[in-house]
Amino acid sequence: MAYSEATPITAAGQARKPVLRRAARTQFFALVLMLPAFIVIIAFLAYPLLKVVDLSFRVGSTMNFLAISEQPYGLDNYVRALTSRDFWSSVKVSGLYLAGSLTVSFAIGLWSALLLNNRMPARRWVRTIILLPWAVPGVVAAIIFTWMFDGSYGFINAVLRAAHISEADTAWLMDGSTALWGVIMPTAWKAYPLITLTILAALQTIPEDLYEAASIDGANRFQLFRYITWPGIISATLVSLLISALWISMDVDIIFGSTGGGPADATATLPLFIYDEAFQYFRMGVASASGVMMMLAVAAISGLTLTYVDRQKF
Amino acid sequence: MNVRGGGLLLGLAFALIGSTSLAGAARAETIEMSTWQAEEGGFGVFWKESIAAFEQAHPDIDINVVQIPYGEYINQLTIRFASGRAPQLIELPSEFMGIFASQNWFAPLDERLAGTPIDSEWAAVQSEMKWDGKTVGSLVMGGAYVLFYNEALLAEKGVKLPTSYEEFLASIPKLTDREKGIFGLSSVTAQHPTVALDIMRTLHWSGVKLIDGNEYKLTSPEAVAALQQYRDIRKANSALGADSSMSRQLFIDGKSAFMIDGPWVYSSVGEAAPEVRDNLKIMQTPFRVAVGGAVNSMHIASTATPEQQDAAWEYVKFISTKEWQQRWAELTVSPPAMQGIVTPDLIAKQPMLEEISKARADVVSAWPDNQGIRSNLNEFRSILTNAGLRLLSTEEPAEAIAQETQAELERAFPLK
Lengths: 314, 416
Prior knowledge:
The structure holds 2 protein chains of 2 kinds. By secondary structure, chain A is mostly helical.
């Protein structure tokens, strides 16, 4: 038997098992420890996902879930969704809702992060207050803003009346042109704390001497932000925007709790369309097809964003 | 304690356990009953009382009540039926019967009904419980929508009670006083299925048919005029953005003069402030037709075992007696299914019962008598709700909205 340095010899003159076998055992043991997590992922993620994709290709209408697997495969559900006026209307509303919510929440989040990055009295209290909306459930936020925007007894109209700007009982959530802003506001209100926290964390990693050196060289505030602050926070910003976008694109509780998708589908986003197809009209196949298409679109956008983030260097 | 005493105690304990097991073995059947009313005022009291009395009279049957909030009721029930976990006994808003009956989820009751009060003494709208020629339910509550009014607000403006639909529409603007925060009409004006009901009632009371023969008539000049009237009255005289809870609360708070709703809402009037409560009254709608029909009904799941179906039927029979029908009227201030049982004693306890129980032979259902529409009422209501919301939230011509809505109805529910 040939011995190597890595093979210790026992007192009895026999070789111990090679290190490679120990490494394999360690790996196997690690896999066994990860097995429960795999089972959970398969049970609660992969399997339901596969079922939804399967359901999206099952043609025909049935409300008997136990008999769905007997239905033939086909593309009718996708065709129905893609030729539905309501589907494209909800895609458009989703796009506007997402863009509006992200813009407003990013503006507030960036501003509050820059504010909190400065030394000021009661900074901890201010930080707590700024982060409070995160703790409020979506339905509660919907109720609060529904009252604020109410046409007859709302806070917004009362303020406008007191400031002599408008005496009208404007029903903000009942007008198709203002209802979308009526749901964007509470959504942005709930979304900005995450952006604030993420950008604040990124701001605190930017070395102070960069600002000092730039100031000495005569850079103004805008140049400081454009050439030092922004490159330092762009990766964190994109990640927080991506996470917020994922949450906003799937969120229904704020719209459900305030306008219900109305008036006349003015605030009916794609998740609401899917909900209606599944649980109002019991067209599970169409709902699943719409959900699959939405998932693919979100996955594609996420992938592109993360690829871009990877390429950012500071 | 000595061994003998200990043995005696042990024996006693076993005897107790044994007798309990025997008692358990005597309870042959447990059934589930679903409702949204388990905690709802007089309705909740009725279900609790009647079930307790029934279980006492039938020790071999247990009824477990499953409370599901109204907003989720149909969806949850549908999911339960679709996944094979349906309750055995179902209370249902009758307008949704078609959704379940079209899937053969309800057991036919024709043979069971023969010879019972349900067959001979029930309100005429029991006929709405038929699907494909079979009776699949028993009426719990039926009747017509009533006109709620605030006597004090009418007196303040010198407005008399209307005697026709036209008088009613003419009186609403006279009662609106925005300076005081008073609305002439409490109406649902938010994204809510009641908007569709309002549209249908408007068409009925304007003398317009949505469907005539094999055609939709929503684009007829009369229908367009009715839709425009619906829009004009509510935009000027109702709180916009109000759902059903808000519109009822406005009336109960004395902030609106008129409200059209089910008579069962009258039980909420008790929550009004003392200075408002005595002014809140109801009357039969003085319009060309009474719109209403079957409101709530009981059904037995076809997926239940024969023994469970028998047990469920025993309860349905139990509450169809005169005693429990009167108790229903007394507790819920709602029309009982059994006719002619509202006595002077009952009226003395609940004065509004006199108005509520007046049966009108010409009660028509708000919804079209079309099985295709009834089996997917949610989508039908959604189309009409969107039409109503467009009328209320935009300045688009009523004719254009009527045309697009009719096109959607023809696509979703073709009549030919």
